[in-house]
Amino acid sequence: MRLMRTPVDLCILILAAYCLMISGCVESENAIDPESLKTWEYYTTSNGLGSDSIWTMAEDREGNIWVGTMNNGVCKFDGEKWTIYNEDNGLLNNAVLCIAQDGHGFMWIGTQGGLSILANNAWTNMPELGVIQAILKDNDDNMWISSDNYYVLEYRNNTWYQYYDYQCEWCNYVNVLFEDSDGNMWLGSEVALKKLDNQNMTYYTQSGPSIRISGAIYG
Model confidence over 10-39: pLDDT tens digits? Predict the structure, then answer.
């Protein structure tokens, strides 16, 4: 038997649709009030920033914002004014790729020309490291860097330790360093993702994870 839709049925459907439409317009207690949103502030070379081409950023423990630029060093913003550090006042190279602060409050600046460390307003430069791709301070205040010339290095108790994998040469070119909540170190390269847990290295690739001992770890 074929059912015929009556005018009463149509009225009920229209009323239901109208109620749904109205309920979607009712203000929710979780809705964002546009008036509460802060306005954007723009920082360019016109108001103190060293360059409009930005590569990386970091915040130090005093709340200063450090901005690494592609062509004019690193810029520190204290909330009011900018201070520019570049090749003219001691920085190794004007192309800054990564920034981190160590446990002493010193700023580690990774550049295309090597590593620069700003400590007590004085620079220590290490051009022999080559391009610095990543810098990380771990939970024990040890410093980790990834460099083109010496690959992954850990600075612990005033000694450098190198992590080199003879079984995967291209895995040594690490683009990003990350420490998880369990203290494991993750190393991201162009050919694999690696997790370092004490002396065990787990490799993650498209073919799945595998575990083996790192090829060499020495200082």
Answer: 455 555 555 555 455 445 556 666 666 678
What is the distance between the alpha carbons of residues 214 and 114, in angstroms, rounded to a whole number?
26
Mind listing the pLDDT tens digit for each residue in 133-168?
Answer: 999 999 999 999 999 999 999 999 999 999 988 888
- Amino acid sitting at position 98: C
Look at strands 74-77 and 82-85 and give their pairing.
antiparallel
In degrees to the nearest 10, what's the CA dihedral of 192, 171, 110, 108? 90
Buried b (16+ CB within 10 A) or exposed e, 185-196: bbbbbeebbbbb
Instruction: Please classify residue 31 by burial: count the beta carbons closer than 10 Å to its beta carbon, then call 0-12 exposed, 13-18 middle and 19+ buried.
Output: exposed
Res. 6: pLDDT tops 70: no
Beta-carbon neighbour count of residue 69 at 10 Å? 22
Please give the Cα distance from 202 to 16 (Å, whole number).
57
The top-level CATH class assigned to 41-130 is mainly beta
Beta pairing class for 193-197 and 185-189: antiparallel
> Residue ranges per domain, the chain?
41-130, 138-219
All residues at 6 or more sequence positions from 132 whose CB lies less than 8 Å from its CB, including other chains: 97, 98, 110, 111, 112, 114, 115, 145, 146, 147
Q: Are strands 208-213 and 74-77 parallel, antiparallel or unpaired?
A: unpaired
H/E stretch holding 18 reads helix 7-25
